[in-house]
Amino acid sequence: MKLQKLVKFILFNFIAFALVSCAASGLVVSQLDNSGQPKHLGSAFPVSWEPNPRPIADGNDGQLLIRTSESIKLLYAAHDSKGKQNLFMSGSKNIGDSFSKAKRVNSVEGEVSAHGENGPKLKQGSGRGMFAAWIGNRDIKFARSMNFGRSFNSSIRVNDDIGKASQSFFNIEVAPDGNIFITWLDGRDKKTNLPGSSSIYMARSVDQGKSFGKNIKISGDICPCCRPALAFGDNGEIFISWRHVFEDHERIIVVASSLDRGKTWSKPVKVSDKGWKINGCAHSGPAMKYVGGKLFVTWYTGKNDKANLKFAFSLDKGKSFLKEKNIQGSVLDANHPNMTILGNEAWVIFQGRDPNLEGGWSRDKAWLLKISSNGNTSKPSALPVAGGGVFYPQLYKGNGGRVYAVWTDLGEGGSRVMLCRGRISS
Predict the structure, then answer these.
(1) What pLDDT, on a 0 to 100 scale, did the predictor assign at position 416?
(2) How far apart are CA 255 and CA 268, in angstroms?
(3) pLDDT at residue 317 in the model
(4) Nearest to residue 377, comparing CAs of 345, 424, 338, 418?
(5) Do 66 and 74 meet the contact criterion of CB atoms below 8 Å apart?
(6) pLDDT tens by residue, 213-252
């Protein structure tokens, strides 16, 4: 009897050691089932992460751009000794092992305002073009590089209003035809909007960012601090999603579409029947991608006193949406989803707390799930942690089966841009 107990004890500890070792090496990515217990995803989510995420810049709100050669550009914001923010770019030619000395991107020193939901953006254009956008002195600023990011032209102002209205919480995407679209939340219509709300505007560039056209208003009564999302269909459609403010402070994610390159827009369509009634702003906008003829949308809500990530999709290009569902599993305080297309799937990365650690009050981790082309979702899987918290995680597709996760770590020594690299094993 004593021998049997000894064998069981040795076997149990051997299995536990093997599981811990595999997780540390990045060979296993765990998930949480409905009861909150870890469960191996197996072949359902075969990503091997490096075990120790590491800082690649002192700053916040990092953005990556990965070229076919796997050379990487990093755009991020950092404070100077006077507390002012600037944008910087550095590069890596060894798949992220090291990064070059950073160069400033913004023309006007100290003008940048970057903080999570209101962070900068970096996008790839055609050929050598790279496009950076940010908030500078309450305006939408844009600068382009036509030499693979070695230098940027002087920035231009995208919003065309006259006055002191605030423009912020923007997004930028490059359409399949090379046109550049920027959409943002705008304070110029305060007299006609509901109290405490903004309008949503957009502008388009048809000359690779040399200039932007007239600003076009899409809608008023917008939740003023939730970044909008942009996506493109396969026949020239443009989709924009935002958090709309309805009567009695009910805030619902909506989608509007354009069939004429952004000149005119449809009435916004509700993604869910009922929204979140709150007299304030969540600082959490939707994420949206067009995948295989379907429009996928995911967003955060605190409705019914519970933090949930919702997902819904449309089969008719945004004219209607199927019933939404929760996708965060047992992850607590799930928020700030970011969506990336990999093949015919949408992968969603977000931040949240592990329910099995410190009574559910451990620091935020980065979590990843995928949505198949038919709308089925996997359970969330935790990425390795570096000791600090995770804020506004982003996921980027590399080449050769590589993926890159970036987030801001707000530690005691200040904010840092963190990198975690992974490989898709099948």
Answers:
(1) 97
(2) 5
(3) 97
(4) 345
(5) no
(6) 999 999 999 999 999 999 999 999 999 999 999 999 999 9
The structure tokens 């709309």 sit at 244
List the beta bridge partners of residue 291: 294
Sequence-separated (6 or more) residues with CB below 8 Å from residue 130: 65, 73, 122, 123, 124, 144, 145, 148, 149
Pairing of strands 365-371, 287-291: unpaired
Written as one letter, the residue type at 54 is R
**Given its phi and psi angles, is residue 178 left (phi above 0), alpha (psi -120 to 50 degrees) or beta?**
left
What sections of 253-353 are H helices per DSSP? none
Tokens 């399949």 sit at which residue? 176
Residue 334 tokens, joined: 């799930």
pLDDT in tens, 343-381: 999 999 999 999 999 999 999 999 999 999 999 999 999
pLDDT tens by residue, 64-101: 999 999 999 999 999 999 999 999 999 999 999 999 99
Q: Which two tokens stand for residue 278?
A: 């709150």
How far is the C-alpha of 40 from the C-alpha of 24, rounded, in Å?
14
Length of the chain: 426
Residues 6+ apart with CB under 8 A from 212: 142, 156, 158, 180, 182, 203, 204, 205
Burial 194-213 (b: 16+ CB within 10 A, else e): eeebbbbbbbbbeebbeebb
Which DSSP string do the residues of 220-238 spell out, in sequence order?
A: EEE-TTS--EEEE-TTS-E
Question: For 278-327, what is each residue's pLDDT tens digit?
Answer: 998 899 999 999 999 999 999 999 998 999 999 999 999 999 999 999 99
The continuous run of DSSP H or E covering 105 comes out as none
